[in-house]
Amino acid sequence: MTRPAALLELENLRVTLPVEGGHRPVLHHVGLSVPAGTAVGLVGESGSGKSMTARSVLRLLPHGARTSGDIRFEGASVPAMTAARLRTLRTRDVAMIFQDPRAHINPVRSVGDFLTEGLITTRGVRPGAAEATVTALLRDVGVADASRRLRQYPSELSGGLLQRVMIAAALAAGPKLLLADEPTTALDVTTQAEVMAIIDEARVERGLAMLFITHDLALAAAVCDRVAVMYAGTVVEDLPAGQLYDDAHHPYTRALLASRPEPGAGTRPLRAIAGRPLSAFEAGPGCSFAPRCPSAAEVCAVERPEPRPTGDGRTACHFPLSDPAPAPTVSTSDRSSAHG
């Protein structure tokens, strides 16, 4: 079966940030493809580089950041875009749903001002038509009494309602790609489910592509077509979401799956990955997961593995695991290291 053409492609993306007079890497080797109309989940521990990857797509990087490799949207290089083309990318082609809406919605302006500003200033839509458009969008994302909500301020809305406002703002741009950066982290479990259902339904109805960043492997597998796993600034595995549980080949992916709580397990201790997670700048010349990997050999410490085909996916490992079960044995001594 032929895969859809790639809308977004990241090839050998590397990002460094200025720290104490030098530059430290925060992304080492990110290769990722998001085909048109599909959802790709980006999963990994805190600090693995997921959010930095998403921000790189829109060139929303800290001052002084340096990049190499390439990011292509519809075949056009994002790092090479002019200011005018980049503005179009940010206001029309790609929309981002941030983790904390309170940090990204102006608290002194009404919800209506926030939602209509882009339509009026970048699209030339008349204020009355813009208000009608965003009112309909609020209803689409499950906001009751939408007309009244437009007159309210962010402080008057709950976290769940504000995240729905953020989703409506993203959809108002009419984008081709959604970047969803852990959009449910600050919400309670019930509201999380509602918000993710809204995002997924809106995406499918509009035929949008999505890069979905999350810590939750099960959620990524449920709402995405493919799942990419990150560790220490590198995508270590990329495979169809339906094969995540039975056909993961990278030892880190297996260890994350093994660390998940199991219903009915009673008081059995959670299994965790031995050692501690590494930041990208701590990684040596070899495989960054080698110090924690039960399958590591001498070559793993000195040579960084390149992604290679494994079944229907790709795995960056010198010794990818072929037997789907059991998952690698992991230690119970450091539960805090397993965030998957």
TrEMBL record:
Pfam families in the cross-refs: ABC_tran, oligo_HPY
GO molecular function term, any single one: ATP binding
Entry-linked InterPro entries: AAA+_ATPase (IPR003593), ABC_Ni/Peptide_Import (IPR050388), ABC_transporter-like_ATP-bd (IPR003439), Oligopep_ABC_C (IPR013563), P-loop_NTPase (IPR027417)
Key words, A-Z: ATP-binding, Cell membrane, Membrane, Nucleotide-binding, Transport
Residue stretches of biased makeup (Polar residues): 329-340
Residue segments, region Disordered: 304-340
Chief place where the protein resides: membrane
Domain ABC transporter: 8-257
Family statement drawn from the similarity comment of this UniProt entry: Belongs to the ABC transporter superfamily.
Protein name (Swiss-Prot/TrEMBL): ABC transporter ATP-binding protein
Source organism: Streptomyces tauricus
